[in-house]
Amino acid sequence: MKPELTNIRAFREGLLRKDFSAEEAAKECFKRIKADKEVNAFLSLDERDALRAASEVDEMIARGEKTDMLAGVPMGLKDNILVRGKRTTAGSKMLAGYAGGYDATVVEKLKRSRAVILGKTNLDEFAMGSSTENSAFQKTANPHDPERVPGGSSGGSAAAVAGGFALGALGSDTGGSIRQPAAFCGVSGLKPTYGSVSRSGLIALASSLDQIGPFARTVEDAAIIFDAIRGHDELDSTSVSGEYGPAAAYDAERVRSLTLGVPKEYFGEGIDPDVAAAVRSAIGVFEKKGFSVKEISLPHSKYALSCYYIILPAEVSTNLARFDGIRYGRNSEENSLWKIYEETRGKGFGDEVKRRMLLGTFVLSAGYYDAYYAKAQKVRRLIVRDFEKVFDGNSGGVDAILAPVTPTRAFKIGEKTSDPLTMYLSDIFTIPVNLASLPALSLPVKEYALGGGELPIGFQIIGKPFCEKDILGLGMWYEKETR
């Protein structure tokens, strides 16, 4: 029987019934990846170790041993997440020959769950971009239309899941890099609360904004993966301890009691009418089924994009200072230190990385710090307060927020590469969540079949800090109602 690659629960049931083996499933994924000539979701494959891990799962099942939900599940990893001894490039020439010195904490957890890691997925260089066109190695296409982008920066992970090359994948979200490609590719993507998933082993972009999260075919699958990777980690000083129950445990009574808010600022000028209508129709599903839905205001959201593109480049310029051609990078043969820097950083980084590093260095420089960076941090605080007010239960607040993910559907490859400002607007609805350190789930407004001729549209459910169970529960409810 052909391996069941539609969702994790069906996969597990088929595996336990011995309709197919984990090794057969892994081989089927590699067969699809190698046959693909259009999407190009993966940068590198780890066939030997993946098949060995799958075989071990089969042996455990044959012996009647208990296995986790993710046992044997074929998954991809964004190529800015370290795996010991395996190539990790962050999509940059700067790390073309680099291999991870240790496993990221999320990788350790996946391995403990016996997930099968197929390989590394493509991304915008150092996770800087909204289309996966900034990778130094290849472009990834949207499985629904190979002439269009999959979104970014985690476009390879989204495309791997949407294209049927993997059952799940991990990405990172700094300003929308999980939710935006999930929306473009018609899959589910979760950006967890900052601190709920360890960042140890993630190549840093902006340390106060980065967060690792899952891509999956269904919301339940995203919840299963999140349950496997979340939790406090001593190796990450920003990770938060605390238990709040399995996110994959659907609680219908709790879900139906939640009050939902719709921010009026997210449906103004700039959003494509078709996208707005589709998201409104998704909100209508909740309203028709008796949910309490009310309009809210997030007045400082209009400043989020400007604020983000000061804070993020500032942190980028600091984090990427380590790639100097000596400790990491393309160690030049030049004799002087200045020449090593010039040759390595000048040729090793792409245009978008250089652009953000220069901007970050400028806003942190003497005489400009207070004018730009300090002011942006004050604006960030105002954005946080907006969310705190609408989530305040003592003043009639809401439990979750429904909003668009992107202002448009997936755009064509090459359409926005010459206009960075237009490209940045792709993240206008996702960035406020990162600035406020909140969790948010992106899911498609309806089911989109590959080859159906329709480009996906997604909407996001934004929650209170560490309330992933609420937004995932709402997402599971919506899928049950509309699929």
Protein model, in words:
By secondary structure, the protein is of the alpha/beta class. Helices cover 38% and strands 11% of the residues. The chain has a single domain (7-483), classed as Amidase signature (AS) enzymes. The chain is built from 16 helices and eleven strands. An eleven-stranded mixed sheet has the order 1-3-2-4-6-5-10-11-9-7-8, sandwiched between helices. Strand 7, helix 9 and strand 8 form a beta-alpha-beta unit. The protein starts with 7 loop residues before the first helix and ends with a helix. The mean pLDDT is 95.
What labels describe this entry?
single chain, 483 residues, alpha/beta, Amidase signature (AS) enzymes, 11-stranded mixed sheet, 16 helices, 11 strands, 38% helix, globular
Structural topology:
Elements: H1 8-16, H2 22-35, E1 42-45, H3 47-62, E2 74-78, H4 105-112, E3 116-121, H5 155-162, E4 168-172, H6 179-185, E5 188-191, E6 212-216, H7 219-229, H8 252-256, E7 259-263, H9 273-288, E8 292-296, H10 304-319, H11 337-348, H12 351-363, H13 369-390, E9 400-404, H14 420-424, H15 431-435, E10 440-444, E11 458-463, H16 468-482
Parallel strand pairs: 2-3, 2-4, 7-8, 7-9
Antiparallel strand pairs: 1-3, 4-6, 5-6, 5-10, 9-11, 10-11
Helix pairs in contact: 2-3, 7-16, 10-12, 10-13
